[in-house]
């Protein structure tokens, strides 16, 4: 069956004039042409003063016959504002021409830099199309908030393909393209999400009930390690166990109390041979799972419990269950693969194969004698999702035509993030009525009985689901629109909300946009403070930090699981620990208002017990979180299941640990995530690591290597060290200039292996030499390198502001933007570059408030 065939009953693009409703960006393209044609036309006289300089010092490497770094400077018609900006920076900073080439005088350099700067400003006239598509993260969050779905295990974006971003952030408008296939995915996702929100078939208030599951029928994917008794089940594997008899899914979303009676059993079945857990309590988990047809199932652990051996006790937890979800029970610290543990024990002759085998394994387990679900608890009526979707505290009267028009208008206004105009309302009311007429009518018999009214209401509800899905697949929902110049109220509210929360504006922002008061400087500043304190700010942390530091790429090239040198990486689940370390470090610098220079060098680390062992650092297991500054800033729980920063830190087992003086850790460069990302799972990559420092930390990436230069070939025999190989490589004149900057930085990080462990020698024997030079200053190791980097806090702050602004604006900054960056950096410096202060300066600036 084709993709389109699966949409039987859904509105097709032709049915609701999707393509016309989308209002394809032809108008924007026409605007683009107008803007380009109306932009200042620079006659050849404008370039005349700089042409001799370029011919003398630049065109030899960047001309018609040779284009190093794919840059050509002899054809002015092909040079845009962004490239002129790069040319200015290279000339101004004396990065070009290279040292071994003819050099201009200081006066020549200064005069030309000023002229190029002016050209770059003139060429920075914005030709932005003024809109960008919601990325997958934003679509997920916007649908949840639009429909009132709680942040549980249901993912509204599960049916939408991952955005293919070649470089930069997933807010980059140029990367966020649209296609027929993607539109169909949005349509399917919208309808499925609406059915999760408007799930009632019987539109009468539900009653709280208790369902007793058959405790003797619990099963997981691998039945070999499950012992089913008459009225109980022993869970011996580490899977998620749920009932296999009778209905298990809940029909109504809500809070449910899940009660489990359980005990730890069979701890000593094999005498001296101890299977996991060898010590400590047997730990049971209770969670929720949602199976979606044709989609990957979603699962979430809600709470864990330490069990008593051979003593049954009742454990309960109140959890949110989506419609169609069900609870599961698990053995959290059992043998992940009991069969492997048994085979290994037999090979090591720790057990008699006659007593135990993978087929009759009777090791430690969780015995469950009762599993019950009670709910929904204190059910709201109408359900919260109905009240959010329809924006009413009562179940709407669908039979009333005026009510239907009002419901459409309210939904359109929230979905489009602006007031719905009369044409929008007329179009979708007409569509709603057509959908209602297309649905099967109740039979004559059913129209005579008492359920006739409910049948009519359900029919209208179905028509609303079809109509709202069409709205959520339209251009006005899927795209953020921003005109050139100062942003109007609704666009400003969206800019602020999508930057900090990655979702639509909340009701307070909508009200301020409606009244226009959000444009008032004091009111806007107050909203900035309110939103920064909201737990949804963690969407900014995960969205920005993950992409800036490429944490989404962590694990794409892990060490071979069969390579014993790195077995601890897989056994200890380093990947997850590395990712969480960096995210928690980012949160700490932000929420504790630390100087952003801490990213370059710090006297503390944010680690858990696993990383303490990797980094050879002490770990205070019982230490509670201790914030130091501006505690009122940190987000607090919002009642929707979003934890505060402190809760998140403590619940994941991380702590702030002071580092000893001269520690090799500190800042980003001492973190396993960065060190693993800049390796390939087999060997470290000094050039990649050096490039990463220049690009991600200082914002000064070297140009791509010339095509004719061969790639570095690793010495598999271990005769030459990476330093030896790079010394030879730099002898090529085409490679010298860039490698002179990158290599010393990357070689300093050779003190860390593929998975971030400290080392002083290579496996083949040679001693590692981490010394080098940066900005004319010698360093002996990575500790001294970090100190030099910390002295470049001005440059790093500018680079960080640029990245933050590009993430917010969805495009690359032009020269006029960069002039504002310089002003913001100067303001932030007066506050010691503290992260909150820097972020506030950005949010309150024209850089944020203008397109």
From TrEMBL:
Domain DUF1592 residue range list: 488-617
InterPro entries per the UniProt record, alphabetical: Cyt_c_Planctomycete-type, DUF1585, DUF1587, DUF1588, DUF1592
Domain DUF1587: 132-197
Domain Cytochrome C Planctomycete-type span(s) in chain numbering: 58-100
A Pfam cross-reference name: PSD3
Residues of the DUF1585 domain: 776-847
Location of the DUF1588 domain: 665-761
Name of this protein: Secreted protein containing DUF1588
Organism expressing this protein natively: Rhodopirellula europaea SH398
């Amino acid at each position: 069956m084709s993709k389109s065939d699966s949409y039987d009953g859904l509105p097709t693009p032709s049915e609701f004039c999707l393509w016309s409703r989308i209002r394809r960006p032809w108008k924007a393209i026409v605007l683009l042409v107008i803007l380009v044609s109306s932009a200042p036309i620079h006659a050849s006289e404008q370039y005349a003063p700089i042409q001799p300089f370029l011919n003398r010092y630049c065109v030899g490497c960047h001309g018609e016959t040779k284009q190093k770094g794919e840059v050509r400077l002899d054809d002015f018609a092909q040079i845009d504002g962004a490239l002129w900006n790069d040319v200015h920076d290279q000339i101004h900073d004396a990065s070009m021409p290279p040292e071994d080439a003819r050099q201009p005088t200081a006066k020549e350099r200064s005069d030309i830099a000023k002229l190029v700067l002016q050209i770059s400003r003139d060429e920075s006239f914005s030709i932005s199309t003024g809109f960008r598509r919601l990325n997958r993260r934003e679509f997920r969050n916007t649908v949840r908030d639009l429909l009132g779905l709680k942040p549980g295990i249901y993912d509204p974006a599960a049916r939408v393909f991952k955005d293919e971003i070649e470089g930069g952030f997933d807010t980059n408008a140029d990367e966020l393209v649209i296609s027929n296939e993607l539109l169909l995915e949005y349509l399917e996702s919208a309808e499925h999400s609406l059915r999760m929100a408007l799930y009632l078939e019987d539109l009468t208030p539900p009653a709280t009930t208790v369902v007793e599951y058959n405790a003797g029928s619990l099963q997981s994917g691998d039945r070999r390690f499950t012992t089913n008794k008459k009225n109980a089940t022993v869970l011996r594997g580490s899977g998620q166990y749920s009932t296999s008899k009778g209905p298990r899914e809940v029909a109504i979303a809500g809070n449910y109390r899940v009660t489990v009676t359980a005990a730890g059993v069979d701890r000593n079945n094999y005498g001296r041979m101890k299977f996991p857990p060898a010590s400590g309590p047997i730990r049971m988990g209770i969670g929720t799972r949602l199976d979606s047809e044709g989609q990957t199932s979603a699962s979430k652990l809600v709470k864990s419990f330490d069990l008593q051996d051979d003593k049954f006790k009742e454990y309960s937890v109140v959890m949110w269950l989506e419609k169609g979800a069900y609870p599961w029970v698990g053995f959290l610290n059992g043998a992940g693969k009991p069969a492997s543990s048994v085979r290994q024990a037999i090979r090591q002759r720790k057990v008699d194969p006659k007593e135990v085998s993978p087929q009759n394994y009777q090791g430690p387990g969780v015995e469950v004698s009762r599993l019950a679900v009670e709910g929904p608890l204190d059910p709201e009526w109408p359900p919260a999702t109905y009240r959010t979707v329809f924006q009413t505290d009562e179940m709407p009267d669908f039979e009333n035509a005026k009510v239907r028009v009002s419901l459409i208008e309210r939904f359109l206004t929230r979905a489009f993030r602006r007031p719905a105009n009369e044409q929008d309302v007329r179009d979708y009311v007409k569509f709603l009525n057509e959908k209602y007429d297309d649905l099967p009518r109740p039979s004559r018999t059913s129209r005579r009985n008492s359920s006739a009214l409910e049948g009519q209401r359900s029919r209208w509800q179905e028509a609303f689901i079809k109509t709202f899905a069409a709205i959520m697949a339209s251009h006005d929902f899927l795209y953020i629109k921003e005109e050139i110049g100062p942003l109007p109220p609704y666009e400003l509210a969206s800019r602020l909300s999508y930057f900090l929360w990655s979702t639509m504006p909340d009701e307070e922002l909508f009200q301020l946009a409606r009244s226009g008061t959000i444009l008032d400087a004091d009111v806007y500043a107050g909203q900035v403070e309110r939103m920064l304190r909201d737990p949804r700010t963690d969407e900014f942390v995960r969205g920005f930090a993950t992409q800036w530091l490429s944490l989404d790429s962590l694990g794409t090239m892990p060490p071979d699981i069969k390579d014993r040198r790195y077995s601890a990486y897989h056994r200890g689940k380093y990947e997850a620990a590395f990712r969480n370390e960096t995210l928690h470090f980012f949160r700490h610098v932000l929420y504790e208002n630390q100087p952003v220079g801490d990213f370059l060098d710090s006297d503390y680390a944010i680690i858990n017990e696993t990383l303490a062992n990797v980094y050879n650092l002490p770990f205070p297991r019982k230490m509670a979180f201790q914030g130091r500054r501006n505690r009122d800033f940190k987000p607090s729980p919002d009642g929707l299941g979003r934890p505060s920063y402190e809760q998140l830190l403590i619940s994941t087992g991380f702590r702030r640990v002071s580092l000893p003086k001269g520690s090799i850790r500190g800042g980003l460069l001492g973190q396993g995530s960065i060190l693993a990302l800049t390796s390939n799972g087999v060997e470290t990559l000094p050039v990649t690591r050096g490039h990463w420092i220049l690009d991600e930390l200082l914002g000064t990436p070297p140009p791509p290597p010339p095509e004719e230069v061969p790639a570095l070939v690793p010495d598999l025999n271990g005769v030459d060290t990476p330093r030896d190989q790079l010394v030879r490589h730099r002898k090529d004149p085409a490679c010298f200039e860039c490698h002179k900057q990158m290599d010393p930085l990357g070689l300093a990080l050779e003190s860390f292996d593929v998975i971030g462990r400290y080392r002083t020698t290579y496996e083949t024997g040679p001693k590692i030499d981490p010394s080098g030079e940066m900005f004319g200053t010698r360093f002996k190791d990575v500790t001294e390198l970090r100190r030099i980097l910390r002295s470049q806090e001005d440059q790093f702050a500018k680079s960080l502001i640029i990245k933050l602004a590009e993430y917010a604006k969805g495009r690359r900054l032009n020269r006029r933007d960069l002039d504002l960056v310089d002003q913001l950096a100067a303001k932030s410096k007066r506050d010691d570059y503290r992260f909150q202060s820097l972020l506030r300066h950005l949010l309150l600036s024209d850089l944020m408030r203008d397109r």
